Amino acid sequence: MPALTLTPNLGGxxxxxxxLVRLHDGLSDEQSLRLWSRxxxxxxxxxxxxxxxxxxxxxARRS
Length: 63
Known about the structure:
Elements: H1 13-22, H2 29-47, H3 50-62
């Protein structure tokens, strides 16, 4: 199984965080949850490795 990268692996953290927060501006709670779901599914499709996705889900649940 490919290793799941859990250490920082991305530059521009502050800009990305700000963009993620702004993404939800003006949305209701329901719209925001739907957005999170769509984003997760888009990224899961991009990753495309079921083992990595299951490892990520397990890591998210533990944290």
